[in-house]
Amino acid sequence: MKQVVQNYKSGELAVLDVPVPGCKPGGVLVRSAFSLISTGTELMKVSEAGMSMLGKARSRPDQVAKVMQSVATNGVPATYRKVMGKLDSYTPLGYSLCGVVEQVGAGIDDVKVGDLVACAGNEHALHAELNWVPKNLYAPVPDGLAPRHAAFGTVGSIAMQGVRQGEPQLGEVALVIGLGLIGQLVVQLLTAAGVRVVGADPDPVRCELAQSLGAVACGDPASAAVEAAVAELTGGHGVDQVFLAAGGGSNQPVELAARLCRDRGRVVDIGKCRLDLPWNAYYEKELDVRFSRSYGPGRYDPSYELEGRDYPIGYVRWTERRNLACFLDLLARGRVDVEPLVSHIADFDDAVETYQRLKDGELKAVAVLFRYPEQKQDAGVSGEAESPAVTVPAVRRSGKAPTPTRSATAPVRLAFVGAGNYATSMLLPHLAQRDGVELSTVVTTTALSAANAQRKFGFAEATTDLDAVLGDKSIDAVFVVTRHSSHAELTRQALLAGKTVFVEKPLALTEDELAGVLAAVEESGNDRLQVGFNRRFAPLLQEARKRFGVRTGPASLRYLVNAGRLQHGSWYLQQGTEGSRFAGEGGHFIDTASWLLEADPVSVYSVATSGNEDLQIVLGYPDGSTATISYVTTGAPGFPKETLDLVADGKVLRLDDFVKASVYGRKKWVSSRLPKARDKGQNAELAAFIKAVRTGGPMPVPLESLVATTAATLAVQAGLAGGAPVTLARAR
User: Fold this and answer.
1) What percent of the chain is predicted at pLDDT more than 70?
2) Main-chain dihedrals φ then ψ at residue 130, nearest 5 degrees
């Protein structure tokens, strides 16, 4: 594997091929996805390595003292050999990363292979393709949190421990001196805790960034602006806490802290700045000076970090690992935003060049990430990085398709499994009025909901017994309209029972569930399946597509979905069991795009805003066409939910929320606007499905297309987790 190293004697930086670490008991082997360069700590180390021996000695007087002690104990020759041997060795860099668990050591039961984890430690979270990480130095990444954001876990924990040392209270005012990476995170954490923050940094760009992230005011510490802001916010009393997040040899930060802190205020040192405390200033105010030790309790304790011995929560509430998990949770919930801090993302192979650009000042950055090849490789073998892939399973039919038993003139007898809001508002009203359709049985888990559906829509029977329905040979088709987590299993059972199946989206929430459905198709020979992708059946969109005409060149499609926020308590928010919101609904939009482009996607790239509230998904198609789906929840509720533009061959198709459509080309066509006629295709979709059941003809949408759309929807989450485009590989 490859690892970034530095020779402290010569200053040489290199990416070396080194052996893969073993997976020892009490920890996990993690394959890096993103690792974070600490532009403070690491660059200081890189800069020191480039100094002369005298310069190194001046910068590290603590190490000089150790050398002198060794001379007194062991003599000059032995000490010289020891020091030169240590200096002339490669040392690792890095201490904050996010990656995927590749192997689990004995005694670990809180994560499994394939889980995404954030890792900490300057011996365990290195800039390397693989790292062994002990239990107390990793934390699982919450669902939906992008790996590049989770890579900030360690520096976030450092900032969090510093904030905890300041013991901030609601309504207090704090001063953060130094607005580098740690300082920017401290600003956000204090703001999230209800503290008003003033920032101080000589860099106006960093001051502007801190204000955009929540600081009330920021300015150059040498100017009067910071002092004026503090006076205004505190009535002249001074701030409650000062957080020293600066570095360098100037004593200005501690002097500024004394001047602007209130009587008996708290000064917390997080960075590594000069600390020649002006005695009178600190004594007269009786300032409480505190140090923040890295990520929190447990740091530098081998029994905690290496042996995995946790501290009892009743005695030590916030340990290294708990701080790490807490920061990841804040990221996942959007309480802290690290995306604006990402100045540059470099490929891991370009590590040496990236460090050099940072050192030379060519690359101005708050935070820089290394991006690693996501494609797994054999241990110790280098190779070309490939995009991660999601397999689109092949549809195989056994040839033993069930023999139709219904008469062509008999009514189509339907059973409904589930009778929730969508079924009772968007499907059953159309079916209850349709000639040649008989609503036979409704199955629900609660007796009352079944009885209500029977009374309202005229089902012949209401039951809670699914097996009885699947075993009833007189029932032609089964509608699966339950919660998302049960769709795949109910579909599988109904196919094996020989039923034609209509299942609301999504067909499956995982690749394993999708494979299970297709295994039922292969086992039974029954491929009579329709997924509720109704928008391709919308009359207005069908007319617009017809007016657009035949496409000859690649197309660009943009689909804005103003999804809006869900009400508190909605079961759509139960991501642990019901999948993400996009997993439940996104198939609609992917299917619509694929239908308009007349192909199935071959690649998916997805990114999200902090907290994964808004998604941007780019689908690639075989002919070079692209479809961009913006799935947003933070828009204005009064704006239309769905707007779509298709551009190709000098023509533009525009759809406005299924109320109005237009096509611009040699001739312009605009539909008549019917404000109350928003038709998203449910009725036409059901008509096509009933026709296929009645006649035994082909299903309205080929099964291969339904599978491809489902796989592409699943690939969106895989893309968010991997931070790279996902290839949709067709199984043979």
Assistant:
1) 86
2) -135, 140
For range 179-196, the mean pLDDT: 96
324, pLDDT greater than 60:
yes
Neighbours of 375 (CB within 10 A): 15
Residue 512 to residue 524: CA distance in whole angstroms: 18
Please give the Cα distance from 368 to 353 (Å, whole number): 13
The dihedrals phi and psi of 182, each to the nearest 5 degrees, come to -65, -45
Phi, psi torsion values for 187, nearest 5 degrees: -55, -45
Largest CA distance in the chain: 105
- Give per-residue pLDDT as tens, 400-409: 655 555 666 7
Q: Does pLDDT of 377 surpass 50?
A: no
DSSP state of 469: H
pLDDT tens column, 462-493: 988 899 999 999 999 999 999 998 999 999 99
Instruction: Measure CA 479 to chain center.
Output: 33
CA distances from 254 to 168, 211, 239, 247, 390 (A): 19, 22, 14, 11, 54
Structural tokens at position 91: 């040392």
- Residue 337's CB is within 10 A of a number of other CB atoms, namely 18
CB 286 within 8 A of CB 263: yes
Which run of H or of E encompasses 591? Answer: helix 581-597
Q: What pLDDT is stored for residue 25 in this prediction? A: 93
pLDDT at residue 184 tops 90: yes
Q: Report all structural domains of the chain as residue ranges with CATH numbers, in order of start.
A: 2-152+302-371 (3.90.180.10), 165-291 (3.40.50.720), 412-533+685-698 (3.40.50.720), 536-682+711-730 (3.30.360.10)
Tell me the three state secondary structure of residue 597: helix
The DSSP bridge partners found for residue 479 are 416, 502
HSE of 187, CA atoms in CB hemisphere, 13 A: 31
Cα separation of 93 and 465, whole Å?
61
Q: Residue 142 contacts by C-beta under 8 Å, 6 or more apart in sequence?
A: 328, 329, 331, 332
Q: Which residues pair with 480 in a beta bridge?
A: 417, 503
Is the pLDDT assigned to residue 21 strictly greater than 90?
Answer: no
Q: Could you read off the pLDDT of 331-375 as tens digits, one per residue?
A: 998 899 998 898 888 999 999 999 888 888 888 888 999 999 863
The gap from C-alpha 310 to its chain's centroid, in whole angstroms, comes to 28
Query: What secondary structure letter does DSSP report for 198?
Result: E
Q: Are strands 13-17 and 2-7 parallel, antiparallel or unpaired?
A: antiparallel
The pLDDT score that the predictor gives to residue 364 is: 82
Confidence of residue 55 (pLDDT cuts 50, 70, 90): low
Containing 630, the helix (H) or strand (E) segment is strand 626-632
Q: Which two tokens stand for residue 285?
A: 């105010």
Burial of 9 (0-12, 13-18, 19+ CB in 10 A): middle
Pairing of strands 138-140, 247-248: unpaired
| Phi, psi torsion values for 74, nearest 5 degrees | -110, -10
Query: Which has more pLDDT, 698 or 7?
Result: 698
Kindly state the tokens that stand for 312: 């009892």
First-residue to last-residue Cα distance in the chain? 32
> For residue 240, which phi and psi values (nearest 5 degrees)?
-80, -35
